[in-house]
Write the structure tokens for this entry.
Amino acid sequence: MSAVSVFIAGPASWNSIVVLDRLPEPVPHMQFAEETWDTVGGTSAGKALSLTSLGRSVLLYALAGSDEHGGRVRAALADAGVPTRWGGAEATERHLNLMTRQGGRVSLYLASPSTTDGADDDELRSAMAAADAIVLDLAAEPLRLLPMAIETGRPIWVDVHDYDGEAEFHRPFLEAADAVFCNTDRLDDPVAFLRSCITAGATLAVCTLGADGAVAVDAEGAEHRIGAVPVEVVDTNGAGDAFLAGVLDASLSGASVSDALAAGARSASSVLGTRHLHPLLDSVLA
């Protein structure tokens, strides 16, 4: 396996997107969809697509079954030029995402693979050790790989998404992280959470704020803010992944925190105008 700059482990899925005028209320009722489509999903696939488009060498390690949905995900990412090492799974991850035009989302997991037996661990360990950075996303298989990633001594970047500050599943990722990314959906005080990550040992902590941009705290405790790049929004799926990818790519190139955040904002804006995770998929899934 050739050395790559960024090793990413985590979900690549086949998603059904349903756009609604409002998210469903928890009572029996009927709603009409404004639009629906099927596409590649998964937070790790989104990051790999964005890094590939930025010219950063990447290896995505993801699980997929031998089913029809797995074939679609494999083919789409291959056609988009994303180098991927596939692990076997009993079923391919699938989501039903209920979305609003404003970015509201309810994700229903229709299938989610469990961990592998570790048969490829020597190969994966070597790939992680040779990378400039490791991205481990929230899923069972990356959690299994976490001790190996720590042993390599390479910087570990994690994305805890809509973490509420308490969920136990996220804690091992947070404890291992050199860089932490999250969004503000369930945090009462994002800056306080970012500072807690720095106190715990991270060197960078970032919270995306949707249309308000993002806020970050660096290793010295300085606070940085960046505005969002104005763009006509078609679909918000993948924007957070593209933001992290832009920050990571710029950071590996030696950019300051402020410049890296600006690169993240530009990267995020590039995916908001497509209904897929990234414009690289537009021609592939036309």
